[in-house]
Amino acid sequence: EVQLVESGGGLVQPGGSLRLSCAASGFMFSEYAMTWVRQAPGKGFEWVSTITFRGIAYYEDSVKGRFSISRDNAEKSLHLQLDSLKTEDTAVYYCAKGGWSNMTPRDIMTLSRGQGTQVTVSS
User: Fold this and answer.
1) pLDDT in the model for residue 91
2) Is the Cβ–Cβ distance between 122 and 115 less than 8 Å?
């Protein structure tokens, strides 16, 4: 059974930073791309970033240069470093098994996801 558990969210001021983590189990982590998606209040899922099993990273345009995705295959963990946060980054962030760049909300619904971690950017 695929299990994904996110952590690291919280309340931060604009310009601040957070580091999200996702602990994975129940599948061969090293053989899959992994993805972060988010859902802002009242909106649909939005693709944020994907890292391939080889470690190649892709980012949504609005987060390029501010967010950084990484993975540790030995620890079966996925991370997302969020820097220079903006109020519009406020959302629940989910990690997902698999994925690809520029996923649509419909694509995202097909992925196994964790329960999410809340990121709130507010002064």
Assistant:
1) 98
2) no
pLDDT tens sequence across 52-102: 999 999 999 999 999 999 999 999 999 999 999 999 999 999 999 999 999
List Cα–Cα distances, 106 to 53, 82, 89, 91, 95, in angstroms.
23, 25, 21, 18, 16
What would the two tokens of residue 44 be? Answer: 């649909």
Q: According to DSSP H, which parts of the chain are helical?
A: 105-108
What angle is formed at CA 24 by the lines to CA 21 and CA 30, rounded to 5 degrees?
105
Sequence-ordered list of residues with C-beta below 8 angstroms from that of 101, at least 6 positions apart, any chain: 47, 50, 58
What number is the average pLDDT over the span 5-9? 98
Give the pair of three-digit tokens for residue 65: 């240069």
Q: How far apart are CA 85 and CA 87, in angstroms?
A: 7
